[in-house]
Design goal:
about 85% helix; mainly alpha
Length: about 110
């Protein structure tokens, strides 16, 4: 159960990253709504991470949470913001994913 909470917390981190990216091009009321989304996703992400840390080791929770956010942010950047998908970016993101899996398996 707490692993699912942590997964959702990480996805909310990806959500607030996406909202932050959208603020770069938005104006007027659209900009305000992206900031509202950013704050809501940020708050939910933090609360869910704290909930997961009640039962899971913080030394696992934080790296998994940031890893999900980092991988998600790179994917969002590539898919939605047309950032480059170079060999090195994909290699290092893959390494990060394998490290997160290693933490889960070893924890």
């Amino acid at each position: 159960m707490y692993w699912f909470i942590l997964l959702f917390a990480g996805l909310m981190e990806v959500g607030f990253t996406f909202c932050l990216g959208k603020t770069k091009t938005a104006t007027g009321s659209e900009l305000a709504w992206w900031w509202v989304g950013f704050v809501c996703a940020l708050a939910l992400s933090m609360c869910l991470m704290a909930k997961a840390a009640e039962k899971l080791p913080i030394g696992t929770v934080y790296p998994v949470w940031t890893g999900i956010g980092a991988v998600g942010a790179v994917i969002v950047g590539i898919v939605f913001f047309h950032e480059p998908a170079t060999f090195w970016r994909i290699l290092f993101i893959t390494t990060l994913i394998l490290s997160i899996i290693g933490l889960k398996v070893m924890g």
